[in-house]
Amino acid sequence: MFVTPLIAAPMAGGTTTPELALATHGAGAFPFAAGGYRTAEQLATHIAPLRAAGMDFGVNLFVPRPFPLGADESAALATYRTQLLATARRYGTEVPGTVLAEDDPKVQDFWAEKVDLLLADPVSMVSFTFGLAPAPVVARLQKVGTRVMASVTSVAEALAAVETGVDALLVQHANAGGHTAAFLSGPTNSSATLPELISAVRDAVKLPIVGAGGIAGAEDVKAVLAAGAEAAALGTALLRTDESGARTLHKDALADPAYTATVMTRAFTGKLARALVNDFVRDHSGSAPEAYPEVHFLTAPLRAAASAANDPRALNLWAGTGWKSAKSGPAAAVVEGFLKGLS
Ligand SMILES: Cc1cc2nc3c(=O)[nH]c(=O)nc-3n(C[C@H](O)[C@H](O)[C@H](O)COP(=O)(O)O)c2cc1C
Fold first, then answer.
1. Sequence-ordered list of residues with C-beta below 8 angstroms from that of 7, at least 6 positions apart, any chain
2. 283 alpha-carbon distance from chain centroid
3. Which of 6, 48, 102, 293 is deepest in the core (most CB within 10 A)?
4. Per residue in 183-233, pLDDT tens?
5. Mode of pairing for the β-strands spanning 178-179 and 273-276
6. Which residue's C-alpha comes closest to atom 8 of ligand 1?
7. Which amino acids bring their CB within 6 angstroms of ligand 1?
8. pLDDT tens-digit profile of 236-282?
């Protein structure tokens, strides 16, 4: 299914730039554009340079939550808002007082319009995270010639994905940087490694697999391939590269020995995501409710203010467990380094 064993993973929020996709493709990886947080128009602009280059690439979308926020989570959200006020004021900003309606296009992450765009102007592959695309959407994409990949974090999620008719699975381990793809339950505390998770999924499901999460070097890729995956996806390994759109503060933090650990936290967005441990993570992880994307919108002004103040203490410094190996410099050199290590 993939002509290369290396995938440049989608990283929404500005990290995956067209330049990053072009550079990783040029060096021999298969890149994914990041559709999350974007409107259809913004997504079209994001992928225009990739189309113009005539290259093969995928597009990743967030699947919106299929049910409204529960009453308990709504109450916890109000409490969390109050707790954030002091931190927000420290940064000279406020916490939004209103919660966006469930049917707000932002809460739905502009899902319908982006699916329509990808049906009208197809790409070779679409991957989904945060949930499963409904089977009719999968079928419509396949009908226009697009292969569809679901992101899963367990055997149970892989079996559920198969029911929707997808062509491939991205098997993501909890060591991954950024948001977990988990949708049935949080990432398990299982001690299974990524290769073990891939083997377990492979025993249960006969679909091509891409392995992701914590890949820091070529040896990790080899282990993923030996476990039965067709390819391995790099996220964190590309974060510090020249073409990555991650903030300088984020890139610098990844190289700063003052940061000594990553942790899964809901503090920034309401969905578990792996980040470097900073003050915000320490102060707010204990009380953040399971309310994505509502918490994302609550903390957005605060994160923007911290960034403007050049202060990483309240930033979401997404990082996988392999963050210490992430190199600066051209993305092509990182991809070439991995590929060389495989030969
Ligand atoms: C900054 C950042 C943003 C991410 N954004 C997305 C995204 O938009 N969609 C997605 O499916 N995965 C996203 N991920 C997860 C990656 O696609 C990938 O699964 C993960 O980075 C692999 O683990 P690693 O970071 O240890 O290499 C993101 C990861 C990071 C670090």
1. 29, 30, 31, 32, 210, 212, 231, 232, 233, 234
2. 24
3. 6
4. 997 556 578 999 999 999 999 999 999 999 999 999 999 999 999 999 999
5. antiparallel
6. 12
7. 9-13, 15, 34, 36, 60, 129, 151, 172, 175-178, 212-215, 233-237, 239, 318, 320, 322
8. 999 999 999 999 999 999 999 999 999 999 999 999 999 999 999 99
